[in-house]
């Protein structure tokens, strides 16, 4: 087999593999009757490296073999590929969080009972990953559902010493009455949910349609 | 159009199905099921046991009645436009009969097609009334159109299968990135957003009127979480150790209310092994 | 910023991304004050393509942008990197896909009408999980069946920029000469409004958009 084809194959394999390949793995690319000697494989790699001079990438040797690697100097630009704009939390997420804050410790089922809709695992996971909520126990019923509560990190983020500093339920009602913005939001959520939000402060998206809660929140989540 | 050719033709269907598999057409027309000692076998001998799986495999080679029909036509080097409906129907029924003989569960689609073929065949036999425009349509037209249509997509499927594909013929090339910074910034959240959301939930749940709001509630619930958290770590705690004198009266009351609430919600057990002995609390388990 | 660095950055990003990048994604690699005009980005790509001439890989354009890919002539060797043979798709799956490709948007019922057999949910689900097809709306008839269409990921996977690059559908044969009576009948049936199949050409441009498609334009079709 001619050197040019060997080089192409090595090059293609290193690019396609998505992991480092060592010389013996490169050897296995070739059928028995066409397998080049190891020296020739090494020469091919050197050849490829020579081609890469002055380019944005190179073939480097790491512990488990050779791999293509983008040059360090490009990192400032390349890393922008994975930069994500922080997304705003959905209304479902905020409502879930609010319920955990005010009704903790409680289970997912408790949240669903009040919200009237299923709580997606993603929401719970996101709140756990942010370490704003944590599992503090399990309710002793079939399935032993996890009991969630807020964490110290949650308090730190909002600059609170304790949850006591938050307004009580009654005050939230007043807050709702006093705050025109909030009223607007409430009105909007009561009416048909609209897709666009003109108010950047209130992340009330057109999440789920308001659902009537038929069952009164019972046991674990009542606050009397 | 599938539905219009239905049960009216039961007798026709049954008659066609009972027709002998080998008629007076040349033998080459039949697809052999097996080759036994160099001899092609196209009729299933009654006394021979063939495991149902075997025929199932043959049938699995077909993607339904259209595919089977197309096969029967192509096998005779016939143009779709030139099919002898009677003959094709006879052969098709032969297959259906075979499937039924070995009690193979027959997809309903095959029977629908059988009914359609039988109908076409019967209409072909009727004298045409060329004066009546509506009635004069060649009964084969619908079938031919469908067969052609199916064949186009059968071909297209083969073409797609031949197209270069990622991971089979072509490979995405990639290179490692050093120092990959994948921190995902978290969204900023304003407490007002949470309160707003909560107010909305409360309104939705129509809880305003029916509940007494106690000032202590939130701190009690926070303390409940604290106690559970602690029991998660050490599983057992003495009742007294829950109280922090430094918190004063207020703190003691909050803790006491939290313990009462936890008991009420069946989240903890209170354990006292002997009268007047130390009281312990533990997370409730069964 | 000089052309050489721009080229390096584009090159590095395309290799690092592991997925196709379009011009606007490439633009975002650059800070506001250093962002080159689009023409220059395109020139950089052409420059990179020129460098690739005669090599085992190239930059190609597919539906969602540009990507580096190893050429198919090397497949016999590259395939040895993986123990498992690339998956073969069943005829049922390919026929279903072919119908969606050429007749989109269409419902499961439309597929069944042509194939003459029920389409298993597994096939539809498998195609959706691969993200080759997506629901783009619902037909406004009882049951509101989902309308399926192919996605950009489908095009990427098959190395296509657009559906136009697909081979044309076979022609419906003209049976005029064969049977004059048949011709007559066909002519009559063509004149009558028939539900399906009067268009032998590629109906890729919503030519035979069947009935009202309710809302939801191409969401789910984009791949990011």
Question: Can you tell me about this structure?
Answer:
The complex is a heterotrimer, with 2 copies of chain A (224 residues) and 1 copy of chain B (286 residues). Chain A is mainly alpha-helical and 224 residues long. Chain A has 2 domains: 79 residues, Orthogonal Bundle (Arc Repressor Mutant, subunit A); 107 residues, Arc Repressor Mutant, subunit A, CATH 1.10.10. In chain A, 43% of the residues lie in helices and 10% in strands. Chain A contains 10 helices and 4 strands; from the N terminus they run H-H-H-E-E-H-H-H-H-E-E-H-H-H. Chain A has a two-stranded antiparallel ribbon. In chain A, a hairpin with a 2-residue loop joins strand 1 and strand 2. Chain A is elongated. Chain B is mainly alpha-helical and 286 residues long. In chain B, 48% of the residues lie in helices and 7% in strands. The radius of gyration of chain B is 39 Å and the shape is elongated. Chain B starts with 9 loop residues before the first helix and ends with a strand. Chains in contact: A-B, A-C, B-C. At the A-B interface, helix 1, strand 2, helix 5, strand 3 and strand 4 of A face strand 3, helix 7 and helix 8 of B.
Which regions of chain A have little confidence, pLDDT < 50, spanning 5+ residues? 188-224
| Series of H and E elements of chain B | HEEHHHHHEHHEHEE
What's the CATH architecture of the largest domain in chain A? Orthogonal Bundle
Q: How many extended strands of chain A? A: 4
Summary?
In chain A, 43% of the residues lie in helices and 10% in strands. Chain A is built from 10 helices and 4 strands.
């Amino acid at each position: 087999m001619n050197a040019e084809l060997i080089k192409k194959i090595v090059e293609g394999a290193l690019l396609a593999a998505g992991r480092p390949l060592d010389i013996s793995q490169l050897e296995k690319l070739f059928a028995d009757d066409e397998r080049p000697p190891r020296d020739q494989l090494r020469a091919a790699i050197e050849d490829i490296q020579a081609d890469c001079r002055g380019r944005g990438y190179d073939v480097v040797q790491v512990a488990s073999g050779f791999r293509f690697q983008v040059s360090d100097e490009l990192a400032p630009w390349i890393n922008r590929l994975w930069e994500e704009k922080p997304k705003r939390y959905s209304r479902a997420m905020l409502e879930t969080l609010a319920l955990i804050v005010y009704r903790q410790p409680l289970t997912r089922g408790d949240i669903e009972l009040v919200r009237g809709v299923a709580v997606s695992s993603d929401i719970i996971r996101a709140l756990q990953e942010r370490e704003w909520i944590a599992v503090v126990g399990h309710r002793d019923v079939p399935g032993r559902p996890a009991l969630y509560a807020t964490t110290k990190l949650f308090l730190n983020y909002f600059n609170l010493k304790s949850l006591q500093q938050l307004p009580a339920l009654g005050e939230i009602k007043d807050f709702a009455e006093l705050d025109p913005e909030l009223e607007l939001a409430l009105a909007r959520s009561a009416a048909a949910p609209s897709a666009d939000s003109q108010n950047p402060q209130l992340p009330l998206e057109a999440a789920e349609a308001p659902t009537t809660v038929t069952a009164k929140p019972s046991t674990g989540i009542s606050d009397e | 159009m599938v539905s219009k050719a239905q049960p009216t033709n039961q007798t026709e269907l049954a008659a066609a199905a009972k027709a002998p598999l080998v008629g007076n057409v040349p033998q080459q027309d039949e697809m052999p099921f097996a080759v036994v000692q160099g001899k092609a076998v196209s009729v299933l001998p009654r006394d021979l046991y063939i495991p149902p799986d075997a025929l199932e495999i043959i049938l699995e080679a077909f993607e339904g009645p259209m595919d089977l029909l197309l096969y029967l036509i192509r096998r005779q080097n016939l143009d779709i436009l030139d099919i002898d409906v009677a003959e094709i129907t006879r052969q098709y029924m032969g297959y259906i009969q075979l499937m039924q003989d070995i009690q193979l569960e027959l997809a309903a689609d095959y029977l629908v097609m059988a009914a359609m073929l039988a109908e076409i065949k019967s209409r072909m036999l009727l004298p045409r009334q060329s004066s009546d425009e509506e009635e004069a349509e060649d009964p084969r037209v619908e079938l031919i159109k469908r067969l052609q249509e199916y064949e186009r997509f059968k071909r297209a499927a083969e073409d797609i299968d031949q197209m270069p594909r990622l991971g089979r013929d072509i490979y995405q090339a990639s290179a490692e990135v050093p120092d990959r910074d994948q921190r995902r910034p978290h969204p900023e959240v304003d407490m007002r957003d949470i309160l707003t959301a909560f107010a909305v939930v409360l309104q939705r749940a129509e809880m305003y009127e029916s509940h007494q709001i106690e000032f202590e509630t939130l701190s009690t619930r926070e303390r409940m979480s604290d106690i559970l958290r602690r029991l998660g770590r050490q599983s057992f705690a003495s009742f007294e150790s829950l109280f922090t004198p430094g918190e004063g009266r207020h703190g003691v009351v909050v803790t006491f209310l939290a313990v009462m609430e936890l008991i009420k919600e069946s989240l903890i057990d209170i354990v006292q092994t002997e009268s007047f002995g130390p009281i312990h609390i533990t997370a409730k388990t069964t």
